[in-house]
Write a structure and sequence with these properties.
Oligomer: single chain
Distance between the termini: 13 Å
Mean pLDDT: 92
CATH architecture: 3-Layer(aba) Sandwich
Largest sheet: 10 strands, mixed
Order of helices and strands: HEEEEHEEEHEEEEEHE
CATH class: Alpha Beta
Number of strands: 13
Structural class: alpha/beta
Shape: globular
Radius of gyration: 17 Å
CATH topology: Glutaconate Coenzyme A-transferase
Helix content: 10-25%
Number of domains: 1
Amino acid sequence: MALDKTQIAQRIAQELQHNWYVNLGIGIPTLVANYIPKGIDIEFQSENGLLGMGPFPIEGTEDADLINAGKQTVTILQGGSLFDSAMSFAMIRGQHVQLTVLGAMEVAQNGDIANWKIPGKMVKGMGGAMDLVASADNIIVAMMHTNKRGASKLLKKCSLPLTGVGCVKKIVTNLAVLEIVEDGFKLLERALGVTVAEIQNATEGNLIIDGEIPEMKL
């Protein structure tokens, strides 16, 4: 059975390591803050100038002045801090963030990512995504495997304007966990009940299948 958005976030949370600084992009990535594994400390950073984000607030306790880069209300943990965007981007460009989690409209088999613009549609701006992909060494993409029309979003080559080139390391979709390797998308795990054949049919890019592919554990 394909994962829902919260389950994608749960699987990505398994990639977190103790004392990492982590930037969460807009959309599915923001949900990762709700699923930090027990026994580890993580500092979530938002490029609008927030360090120490906690889970989403309980309904009725929201603070309209405390938002993430996607303009969603968030919480801040004890010891968290607020600062200007200049300091935030100095942190990003200085490579002080160990993991960046982004959403995407397309990912190519060489690690290119397109996640900021669809030509002809209104866009507010690229936000911090281009700085993040240019500076980060560890980028995980959270996305649906196909679009609403059923067409693959994991491609041989992106058709939309690029955000970054050759930067994505790993992808977690509603169907699978994949790693970018030299020859394409290496299949690491599959969603519960989803077959390798189904993932192959949903992937336009070169899918590398090496041995038995285990199911994800959430």
